[in-house]
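ugh ok so i messed up the first submission bc i forgot one of the chains. this is the corrected input, ALL of the components this time, i swear. 1043 residues overall. if the numbers dont match what u have on ur side tell me asap before i send this to the collaborators (the ones from the other lab, u know who)
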Amino acid sequence: MRLSGKPVAAGGRVIAALRAAAAIVAIVLSLGQPRHGRAGGEIGLAEERAFQAAAAGVAAAVVRIESSGVSASAVEGPAEAAPASGPSTGLVVDPAGWVITTAFAVPDDVKQAIVVLPGATTGAASRFAARVVGRDTSRGVVLLKVDPPAALPSVGSGVPRASLSVGQWTIAVARGWDLATPNIAVGVVSAINRAWGRAVQTDAAVSPANYGGALVDIRGGVIGMLAPLPADTAGMMLGTELYDSGIGFAVPLEDIRRVLPRLQSGETLVPGVLGVSYRSRDVFTGVPTIATSRPGSPAAEVGIQPGDTLISVHGRPVTRIAEVRHALSPLYAGDELEIVVERRESAAQAPRRVTMKPRLVANLPPWRRAVIGIVPKRVAVKKEDDREGAAQPVVVDWVWPESPASTAGIVAGMTVRAITPPGEAAETVPVTSSAALAGVLGGVEAGDTVTLVVRDADGKEQTQAVTTIPMPTDIPAQTPTRPESPDAAEVVKLEAAEVATPPIAVIPAGNEDDPVGVLVYFGRPHGPVAVDEAAVWRDAANRYGVAVILPGSTDPQRWSRDDIRGVARSLDSLRGRRAIDPSRLAVAGSGAGGAFAWLAADALGPAIRGVALLDAALPRQARVEPAEPGRSRWILFDPPRTDGSLPPRVEADRERLVRAGYDVGVLPERDTETLPVETLCSFVEAIGLL
Amino acid sequence: MSGATGWPRQVGGVVVLVATLVMAEGVADTPRQTIADAARKVVKIHGAGGLRGLESYQTGILVSPQGHVLTVMSTVLDADEIDCVLDDGVRYRGTLLGADPSRQLAVIAIDAADLPFFAIADNDPVTVGTRVLALSNLFGVAVGDERVSVQHGVVTARVPLEARRGGYEVPFPGDVYIIDCTTNNPGSPGGGLIDWEGRLVGMLGKELRASASGIWLSYAIPAAELARGYRDILSGTVSAPPARDAASFDPLGLGIVLVPDLLDRTPPFIESVVSGSLAERAGLSPDDLVVAVDGRSVPSRDAVQRALGMLADGDPVRIAVVREGRVVDVELGPRPPLPAGKRSNTPGVEQDQ
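and heres the new structure output, hopefully the right one now
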């Protein structure tokens, strides 16, 4: 069977006609002509027949999928809707026995997948053992092959995405409930290019009961396969928890067909990686100006440089980081694309355009941060500056003890003006901000020598060759403190709209332009936090210039997601009172608060540069994404026990984090009875290290 | 296959429909009129509960002019006084006339006469894809003479509740309608489900979800079951609730030794076959993966035991295994009786607490 490929616009016109007819009927009704009074219901019934006809048209190509030996942990997502223990659905895409389904139904560790045909003629179900041939991990699509005795009815070419319009009817057709009669849910197209261009969104009920089924238009044309999309890198889950929320997704059949030959040849398609980071951290407002091209990455290979601004990606003009992601996310490792950048050789020259053709890869070589050993003076960055990466001179505040910078004679008060990465052809990059300096260092491997142009306090410039070292993992015994202040730190309640238990903040003395670092500390959850709990932090906060936020828990027994939202709002509210240095944000916690601190850091994003876990390990469901320039963190655990070993879970976490490229150290020895407020505040100061 | 023919038929249908609109009188009321008529037959019920997480309200439907209110059995009805508020806001004190534990239905009597009521059809002509309207006091938001809430959707499936994902408690014997609008809300149970012509399709069920998949169910008890339940309650011939425990049968009774149960969902590979057993005679062999018992999918060791337990003593045992990449069907002959006292709990449905 092939579903006809007529343009969907025809269907749209008929629907429009139906709706117009309904409108006319409504008018007629309002004129009080009872003769036509019952016709509104007729239209509804005509639509009902259309839903059923559309589902019947595709039904023969909708099959059931059963999986054996799927372990409970195989599928990511909340326990609520985890993993497919019951039947799921698939679509026949080729009469020879090629069937697509979701990674939800057939996860990596499946022992055996079975395709069940409804058996239209005999009424009896027939089972076929399926081989897993290919996977698309970007879209969560799995390709199965069975060897049926006869050709199978298959779905057609699919409705082109370009012909879809928001608001048109959609019918979800699957066999998760009943084998003999396909189950139906009805909705409309909610959006066409969701999940960074990978999915069509619908409000038809999409759940584990119909994942793998077909989303069809009112004529039975297949729009796509219903699927929970894999977790997004931005932290937004597009997965199974959304099933009762009026939001569902389908991977366009058009996109699946495009890569079908690759899947049939046994390929595993994974998202493609370019290997750049951006100066701005705001995906939605940030201009895509490169901070770092990772060594060995496709970006570095074609010569994308720090300071380049992307203006076109894969044929699409881009002005924001989000648009770059939209253009890149649908692509796979192995895909070649065209990228156009604007490059400015010097401030005086006009930018010129450079076109490059990188080929995306699956994984970048592991990355470890390299540093030179300076800690820049704090800067206050306003939100609007963050778009371009704020221009702020990098003045050395203090030099890390026994670091390359101290050996090279760099001292506090000097300004870093420019940096030249290693390599014959390397171009000198002006250091307009600490983000720009961090960007260049992100593309440098420890042991490489960079050339710095520094200006001393008298205005004399000198050039220094400095050999980078790997990021140290323990904080120095002493970090500089601020001069004694006659004023005490202020303790305030950070009220914010919709925050049930507002955090208490300890704000160091100083005027509002004097930038502070921020530490968010999660203790034992016990409901609202009292003002006197802040007392212990006041001295240290003042000495290190660190604002300490103590969140309350909405639930008196445990930390919850709501509390993270509360923290995000309280950061905004703190920003309204006092300038914050964006490179000195850390979270810490002890016990249950420690595990939660990791989740909070994950949710708050790459802005959080440090995480300290006291008497705690990572939460069991922790996600650990590989570190990369601009997305790295310094993580401290409690020091080893007296026998020199870490608790087994901590040790396992430490290894996992180090493998992912994070800087992992331990806190100095401490008295476990008292809170190490000094150490934690000095940690916030130390994370500014470059 | 003739899938391509659906569209032209639809075009024809539409043309005819539009012609109908212009030329002649339709047969269906407007949805607005249909809803107004149906809402007069829906009752807001207030009773016991009100503790944290336990609602004290639900919905019911009038099924006789003398004030019989049919609803689902729940803790809300565990009260000496059950308040029934009709569409016009008039409040009646109801008494529990009787309950059908097998279908989880109950009838409340109120002292009234000449009320509008739903005639309950004794058959269920509704097919999958039928448009439906759900009328209920979801979240208890309708107060006094406020009309109950209306949701719209289609019938997604008609399935036995126990069949869904293998491991349900069986709340009642027959099939249910799964619907695609979210009706698993506090207050919805007992609400009316009607089609676009105003016929009663079913009654919204309780807030349930499957332990295995965690999905909240939006379902309705079909009209024919309601008719039977109502009749049984009036005649006092209600049956006992179905057994909560399903039997579990160890495949060793057939001569099948499965691999040890180490994981939470151990795939049911055959480790060995007892010589001289039914399994050996049927040709089962080590490394066969059991995928179905009596046509039922068995994704894990537990599922095999449960599926075998669902057979009656002496029923033929049909098993499908995967061997060398192919599905092989085997018949083992009659299932031996369950060993005495061998019963185990199946994972059931959880009720929202």
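quick check: Residues 370-470 of chain A form a domain with the Pdz3 Domain fold (CATH 2.30.42.10). that seems consistent at least. Residues 8-30 of chain A form the longest helix (23 residues).
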